[in-house]
Amino acid sequence: MSGAAYNEILDAAFKASGGDGRPPVISDPSALVRRMGKGKDGKGTAYGTDPIHVYRIYYFFLFHDDARLAPYGERISQALFGKSFYDEFERDMIRLGIPRPRHLPAVKIARLGPISISLGNAANLQPLEIDQHFEATLTEDGIPDVYAALHWSARLSNLHGRTEEHKRLMAWALDDASNRAKVMLISGPGGSGKTRLAAHVVTRLVHDKDKLWHGDFLPSNPDGAIYNGAGNGVALIIDYPEERTAEVKAILKSAAEGTEYDRPIRIILVSRQDRQSWLKILNDPGYPNFEEIRLEAKPYLDFEDAETIAHDVMEDYPGSIGRRGKIRAKFLPDWLNHDPVHRLPLNVVAASVHAVLFPDRAFSLNGKGVLSALADFELRRVRSYSERDLGARNALEKLLALSLLTPTGLGKDTIHELGESGICEGKTGNHLLEAVQATPFWRKRTATQPGHLVRIEPDLPAAAFLTKALKLDDPPPGLAGWMAPAAAEAKEDFGDILARVIADIASFDVEAGRAVEQVSIAMLDTRPKLLTPLYRIAYRPTSTFSAKFVVAICDRLLALNQPDPTRAALLLRKANALIAHGANSDALSVIEEGIDRFQALDGDGNDEIHANLGLLYRYQCNALFKIGHLEHAEWAIHDSAQYFEQLFRNNPERYAEDYAATLDTFAAICSETERLEKAVSYSAEAIRLLKEVDRLRPGTVKEAIGVSSLNQSRFLLQAGRHGQALEAIDGSIEIFKELSEGNVSRYKPMLIQALLNRGATLASTGSYDENLVALQEAEKLCEPIAALHPVVFLPQLALIELNRSNALMRLERFQEAIVAAGQAEENYRAALGSSGDATNSQLAQAMHNKAMAQYLANLHDDAVLTVNEALELFQETPDVSKGAQNIVSGMLADFLHLKAVNLFALTKVESALVAIAEAVATLEKLQAAEPERHIKKLCAFQEKQYEYLVDLNRVGDAYEILVSVMENAQAFSWLDAEWHRKVSDRLHLKYMQLCQTMAVPADPKFLRPPAPFSIGPVDVSPPTDDFQLSTYTFSYDLNWLGDFKL
Description:
13 strands; three-stranded mixed beta sheet; single chain; P-loop_NTPase; Tetratricopeptide repeat-containing protein; Rossmann fold; TPR-like_helical_dom_sf; mainly alpha
């Protein structure tokens, strides 16, 4: 097309637009020609040879406000290409969001964030073909691929146990009330069948003759692609959306616009996070309301459905891998009933596959044992290819394990870098890449993904594989260096992927999960640029990481030059983690800096900044509370209340929970300072305002009402209002039972805490049988959760077992109490050794109960061994604040006392005297600082010391101790009149007997005048402190873990 021809069309276009031959945008048509460039002859004769020129020409017409110009752009396009310009560059136009000119037939495009879906027939569209995932090859070179068999796409069994969920999802998809884009969340733990359910429904929508939709999984990078949605509807599945939050937010924002299309568009999120968690991740009321299907009811499948799945697999799988023979399923019923986790759909399939491969061991292993055995089987298969293609036995398994840290698997550049780092002996760089590409684990380039080393699935079996392949029980020295390239490939998703992988590893092996954290820290110290993806840790708290790891990450992020808003958020997160870790003094200094930072940002009275300040003051209160600074703690919670009260008044629905939490914390402070009625009043006000919000928006604050009712029960109990306390806690239990029916993982722990508190309340009234029933119910609920999420819930399970040992001792079932306390000790040790979030004091409490039960069962040698082991813990306790040290010292005194009474029972009186003297000396130091708190125990221990001295016939020393204890009791007679009466009666009798034995006159100050009237019989029974049982632990914690508001 010559320049003259172009100018002729251009001039006609200007005249058509009503102009006088001069364009409205440029003053001279020839200037436009010159800007576009000239041909080799200098006259502009070669425009058709350069597409960039064509873009410039066409954009002039396309972006012009006057629609009359558009046809002339089409004339130019026809002259250049012989067809419509828009057809030639349609994909690019859609990607750029440029509409078709109004004179051309529209190709309808649905744009949902980064997703573009063509709703009409057009060229060069990406297909949505879910069938491409149904190509699972169950054997390779005659060897079974067990992980392919476990993948949802293998379809070794029909979809059992999800009938209602399937009906609901199908009805939601086909609802013709509106063709707006709709979103459904399918939530549940790994292995519960979320992806299988979503894929099954989408497959039906695609293949049923009366539907004929287009549907598929959304690729990892959808930007720029345009998907074919020309059927009767479109269904997209987004797996791991919590690792793609930016995309999900953009999609939901677009869906919120409410555009009506000519066919339904459905987005299915398959996530481990429930709807409540997603609302907090989104943290914006502008997102659309989306529905949720939860796959969390336990047991995950009923017995019949689980058994049917197992038989399906055992019938279908042998033929698929060339094996014959009937599998014996004799132990299947017992296996399914042994543990609720065994009825997780993935575990049922895994155990059935294992039964086919190892028929002599069918259903003889627990869930973890099955995953471990299958990991060993897969490792043997992988090693055969590693030796054949890489010339190194273990190199390929390391690469496959590292691929789990990426969204889709290791790419070429990453494998090249790993080769250069020495991960495979004898092969570096391109040589390693060529060798890996020769294995069956290499996936060739597709329309949506470049070539890559496969990422092993499903997640839980893959975690078992990673644990073994990377030898996490003793990580190799180079592991941190190998992780770095994989983390770099994951880019901004690394933090979320790491959280998921650690959770899966920890469910298989808790200590291995913590090893990954330690290696990650070492990696970040050598590659600090990889810290960037972990910024999200400041804004999205997760229970997957240990508090220790969170503190380490925050420290490294804070060491960088952060802008103030980010630094403030990191300080908030770090303070929270330090308190969870028990480092309250360290937390206080972090909180102070956080308060300063947020106050400096508060130039315009920003609500989010005020909310974070309110949280920081509440954390400050918690830390001060835990180290015994109650007065300062009250000042801090007062400051928190000022922020949240104002926020609540301005926006009651959003800040009701925070304000209620602040009132509950006020109540706790009042309770600790014996202002019990005031505590009850604050708590009642918190519940009242929450119920008012619930009346306006039903269900939105039900969880907060349950928590506040739980706390209120404690305050009522301390006020002696036992009936009202039980009423409050029963109300809380009812709420959490209802909530946990829909969301097990979130609300069952709260239900467990409520049952634990109910047991404590019943124990306080002496109803130990009922107490034991409540604790057994809590334990039954907690065991399967602790098996799936040990890092978080092992301490809670241990606490239940601890209190159960208390109840059993009260019921004089001492042998059972020993077992229960031993289980608590075992679980605290596991939590302490793995996450660092348990504390020595918790473990010590379990050991105290165990030793006490052994003492009561007359197993005195065992009790002494337990106490000596516990005393070693106190030597390992790091320096702590004064308040915390007082708590530790008090526990130390209790153990020394317990050691003394057991040694005395073994007639080792001299050793018993040494132990009780040390206990008395420890308490005397505490009593000097807090006299009213420790005086009763000090008197009891001194009385025990007196008895041992008398037994050794050291009457002179005994006399001095007895005088001391009598003086102490007399000095605090005002503290508790009934206690003083009993103690003084008993001590007076002993004093008179000792004076008679020593033939010394009694000191007049200890002589008691005859009573003018009877005050009842003299109590000469021994002090009951020998039999002190540990205090029942309530669920209340001042550290209400609020959401991060930035």
